[in-house]
């Protein structure tokens, strides 16, 4: 099975940034995805209650779980979604430090 994650660089730790700052962060995320050779599809995260604006995101295929978590840490996300294609995805909190942040070094 192929591993996947859905992640964004927008609004770190759920703190709203300017559109310019968010776009700059998202471009940096896209550069890391491309440099690692992962396949990515653009998407949009939309909250349940409509009080938070939709955030552009990437569905990244072929990324292992540790790298997915490292991306979440690198871009200061509260959580990411990760799983296996055809399997169940899960919400993974990114608030605690991780020993391996290999994705942040590219």
Description:
With 106 residues, the chain is an alpha+beta fold. The protein has one domain (3-105). Helices cover 26% and strands 27% of the residues. The chain has a five-stranded antiparallel beta sheet with strand order 2-3-1-4-5, covered by helices on one side. Strand 4 and strand 5 (90-93) form a beta hairpin.
Protein topology:
Elements: E1 3-7, H1 19-36, E2 39-45, E3 55-61, H2 65-74, E4 79-84, E5 90-93
Antiparallel strand pairs: 1-3, 1-4, 2-3, 4-5
Residues in helices, as a percent range: 25-40%
Number of strands: 5
Mean pLDDT: 88
Describe the sheet with the most strands. Answer: 5 strands, antiparallel
Principal-axes geometry comes out as globular
Low-confidence stretches: none
Please state the structural category: alpha+beta
Can you tell me the number of structural domains?
Answer: 1
The strand line-up of the biggest sheet is 2-3-1-4-5
* Secondary-structure element order, N to C: EHEEHEE
List keywords for this structure.
about 110 residues; alpha+beta; 2 helices; 5 strands; globular
């Amino acid at each position: 099975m192929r591993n996947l994650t859905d992640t964004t660089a927008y609004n770190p730790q759920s703190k709203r940034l300017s559109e310019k700052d968010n776009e700059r962060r998202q471009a940096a995320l896209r550069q890391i995805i491309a440099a690692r050779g992962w396949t990515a599809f653009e998407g949009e995260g939309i909250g349940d209650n409509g009080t938070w604006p939709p955030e552009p995101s990437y569905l990244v295929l072929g990324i292992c779980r540790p790298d997915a978590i490292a991306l979440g840490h690198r871009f200061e996300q509260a959580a990411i979604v990760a799983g296996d294609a055809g399997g169940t995805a899960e919400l993974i909190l990114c608030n605690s430090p991780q020993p391996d942040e290999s994705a942040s070094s590219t």
